[in-house]
Design goal:
Layout (H helix, E strand, L loop, with lengths): L13 H22 L3 H10 L5 H21 L3 H21 L8 H17 L11
Length: 134
């Protein structure tokens, strides 16, 4: 079947760009939430999962999410940050699965984040990025 809007294919690099910006803003927000309002919930979930000392791991995890989000925002090392976010979203899926009563998000949220991260890992940064595909 023919593509109904072939002119729009000229903008195909904007798709990964939009996903990259969206994922960056989500992970920056998630990182800041781990420092503020969700800190107690994450401390409890890390303790429940046996990750000790939780008061060290939660801020470190939040900092990694903020730094990775900023890297995605700039389009710097996009595939490395996307790989980290594939791992992070897998971890958060596991945490949500094991500690459903502690955290408030839905499994669909983490599956969506996982899919966007995997998409960026496979497609690259898209338009307006520091990364240059070879």
């Amino acid at each position: 079947m023919l593509n109904p809007f072939p002119e729009l294919l000229a903008y195909s690099m904007l798709g990964p760009f939009i996903l990259r910006i969206l994922l960056a803003l989500i992970f920056i927000d998630l990182g800041f939430l781990k420092f503020r309002s969700e800190k107690e919930g994450w401390l409890a979930s890390f303790e429940t999962l046996g990750l000790r000392p939780a008061d060290l791991f939660v801020p470190l995890y939040a900092l990694l999410q903020i730094i990775g989000g900023l890297m995605l925002l700039a389009g710097l090392w996009t595939q490395v940050a996307a790989l980290a976010f594939v791992i992070f979203s897998g971890i958060e899926l596991y945490v949500e699965w094991q500690a459903r009563e502690i955290l408030k998000r839905d499994m669909v949220f983490y599956i969506l984040i996982f899919a966007i991260s995997l998409s960026l890992l496979l497609t690259g940064a898209g338009a307006y990025a520091i990364d240059i595909p070879l």
